[in-house]
């Protein structure tokens, strides 16, 4: 492989021998064609840290740094503008460390995606499935929109700090100027914007974040835009009433809706966050739940507090929460189960904002589930005993709106309890299984047989479990033809042999 820039060439090879052969061929060809080769600047012996176009290329680590000559020229240039003590720093100083730390050849593939937006009113951001929004203070009311957009990015990263630390983060924004400043780590058109970019870059370096940005068309940036304008309250997502009533018919009708408002209460008796003359109580977490059978759809940030409350009081809770095994509260949630979870339907209008009528952009990606929880140990044990007796049946009809499923609790860090069996089945999307969905079927069966989630994700070359969950939602039991039944039969025969 040859990299050329005007009359400079860099020859690369996969081994020393191949590089030497390619170099000889290139040298002889250039000479035969009449080119004069500068032997003083050339390096006929292969190097793993060559210097090319003023950069020292560390091929072993994939880093490019300024060469020693380039550093010397930079110091001489700085000495024209800065005091000698700054322009000629001691070795190992902060200046040297920043200049020589290098730039990687290939930026890492993003592992976290954040979408941001700003308006004159406030800012908003999403890190699926989380959302955050804020309102500008008086000090920012007259700021340029470019400054507000950059502040929105900074605020989003700092809010999601625990999720982005040590990650490669890709920011999606509809402001081209902010994209350029982030990707170039500064700019020359606006001193204020450049200073904000430097502050953000240093913050990212301190937290081990590789930051990059990409453009998203304004018409596609719906959720972040609505958040920035105050059209969406991040704590006011409401479940479609028909779905809530379907859950109540499947399980039981609760006494009270614990996290509601006068616009989205699913039951006549409800609790609110603020004063409401029609509410039963204010602040559900501050009242007693003893003897209650309650419905709860709290913000994600309150799930841990809800679980703590359940463990402290004798109550039954129908909790609407994400199927999110990576959350620290997930094993805790599973331990409190007293009924098979209910998978909520994947429909576009599943979640909406009652005040504005805005629907969630991708409710199906949240994998919302109704978890029936109690601290009663006898009820928990009865549920586990019931799971041991269940077996998948290809002919078993599935509910059209909500689906009862048996999850692989043992795959998700629940104390290795041997009495909690793996998934029996996970019916989901309607329609036949297509040819390219075979991997989803096979991994579903692997999970059914108790293969650890990490092994499944690794074997399928998926970066994280989210891909598995999306591919996993295949209706194996109701597949057209014999495919689904044969998969189950084959697995059963294999299990009997072993």
Automatic annotation (TrEMBL):
CDD domains: RNase_HI_RT_DIRS1 (cd09275). It comes from the Eukaryota. Transmembrane segments: none annotated. GO terms for molecular function: nucleic acid binding. One of its GO terms (biological process) is DNA metabolic process. InterPro entries: DNA/RNA_pol_sf, Hepadnavirus_pol/RT, RNaseH_sf, RT_dom. Residues 1-57 form the Reverse transcriptase domain. This is Reverse transcriptase domain-containing protein.
């Amino acid at each position: 492989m040859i990299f050329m820039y005007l009359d400079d060439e860099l020859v690369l090879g996969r081994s020393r021998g191949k590089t030497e052969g390619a170099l000889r061929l290139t040298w002889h060809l250039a000479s035969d064609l009449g080119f004069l080769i500068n032997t003083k600047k050339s390096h006929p012996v292969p190097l793993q840290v060559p210097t090319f176009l003023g950069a020292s290329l560390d091929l072993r680590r994939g880093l490019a740094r300024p060469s020693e000559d380039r550093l010397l020229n930079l110091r001489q240039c700085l000495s024209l503008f800065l005091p000698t003590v700054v322009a000629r720093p001691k070795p190992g100083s902060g200046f040297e460390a920043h200049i020589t730390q290098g730039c990687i050849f290939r930026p890492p593939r993003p592992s976290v995606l954040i979408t941001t937006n700003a308006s004159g009113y406030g800012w908003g951001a999403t890190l699926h499935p989380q959302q955050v929004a804020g309102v500008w203070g008086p000090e920012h009311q007259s700021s340029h929109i470019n400054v507000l957009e950059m502040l929105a990015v900074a605020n989003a990263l700092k809010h999601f700090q625990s999720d982005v630390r040590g990650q490669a983060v890709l920011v999606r924004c509809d402001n081209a100027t902010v994209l350029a400043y982030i990707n170039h780590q500064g700019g020359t058109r606006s001193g204020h914007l450049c200073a904000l970019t430097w502050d953000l870059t240093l913050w990212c370096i301190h937290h081990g974040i590789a930051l990059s940005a990409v453009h998203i068309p304004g018409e596609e940036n719906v959720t972040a835009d609505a958040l920035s304008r105050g059209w969406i309250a991040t704590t006011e997502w409401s479940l479609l009433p028909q779905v809530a009533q379907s859950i109540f018919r499947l399980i039981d009708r609760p006494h009270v809706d614990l996290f509601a408002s006068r616009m989205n209460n699913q039951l006549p008796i409800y609790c609110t966050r603020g004063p409401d003359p029609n509410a039963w109580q204010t602040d559900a977490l501050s009242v007693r739940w003893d003897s209650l059978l309650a419905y709860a759809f709290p913000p994600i940030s309150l799930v841990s507090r809800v679980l703590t409350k359940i463990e402290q009081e004798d109550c039954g809770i129908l909790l609407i929460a994400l199927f999110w095994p990576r959350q620290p509260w997930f094993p805790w949630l599973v331990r409190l189960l007293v009924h098979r979870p209910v998978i909520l339907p994947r429909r576009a209008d599943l979640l909406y904002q009652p005040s504005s009528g805005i629907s969630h952009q991708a409710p199906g990606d949240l994998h919302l589930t109704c978890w029936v929880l109690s601290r009663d140990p006898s009820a928990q044990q009865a549920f586990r005993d019931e799971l041991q007796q269940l077996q998948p049946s290809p002919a078993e009809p599935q509910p059209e709106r909500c689906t009862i499923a048996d999850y692989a609790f043992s795959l998700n860090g629940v104390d290795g309890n041997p009495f909690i069996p793996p998934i029996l089945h996970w019916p989901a999307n309607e329609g036949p299984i297509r040819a390219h969905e075979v991997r989803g079927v096979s991994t579903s069966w692997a999970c059914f047989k108790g293969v650890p989630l990490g092994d499944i994700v690794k074997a399928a070359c998926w970066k994280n479990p989210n891909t598995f969950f999306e591919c996993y939602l295949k209706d194996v039991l109701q597949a057209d033809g014999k495919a689904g039944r044969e998969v189950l039969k084959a697995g059963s025969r294999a299990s009997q042999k072993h």
